[in-house]
Amino acid sequence: MTRKRYKSSASEELKLTGMVLSAAPFAESGKRVVLLTRERGKIAAFARGARKPASRLLAATDPFAFGTFKVYAGRDSYTLLDAEITNYFQELKEDFEGICYGFYFMEVADYYAKENLEASELLKLLYVSLRALSNPHLENELVRSVFEMKAMLLDGEYPHETAQDMSLQESTRYALSYVMQAPIQKLYTFTLAPDILREFQEVQERIMKKSIGREFRSMEMIRTLFTK
What is the model's pTM? Predict the structure, then answer.
């Protein structure tokens, strides 16, 4: 899949569909946010006054906020002017384990996203995967492994021959093949028996370790708090 790359141009006002991946204090009352956008990939934008209680950007600049962001593209940076948020993922935020996995997904998305390279599929994957974390019928570890695998596939890093590894159980190979071929909207339509899920996880963790070579900070927390 060929993705469109954009060249930054100064003094341009843009409307971008995206999600806040992270936010940090900036200046006296502002925030610096990292957005994953459909049109421009990963961008950092400064939101002046966003930490003031009366600011209309206060909640719109929190992680997980998804919607349309109006930004001004300056010569060297973006300024966030306004936002129309359609989903704050409030249900996920009320689940401590779910939110921990959600922050991990944000870290992974931040790792794979590129600046000025459209990210419509990665944004869709992140959105659908966060929704899946709120599904009580799905194991968080299954959602995590599927999310990781599909993110690697979108980036062109996943070894497709893994699904033909005859040392794996047939159901595991089938699950791997399904994730490779399924459209993002259909990813989370299956569950796995405990032994199959365990093997599926082991395969994915081995590939992630080989490809990335480090563990994300939020995953260290998940292992400490939730892994038996």
Answer: 0.93
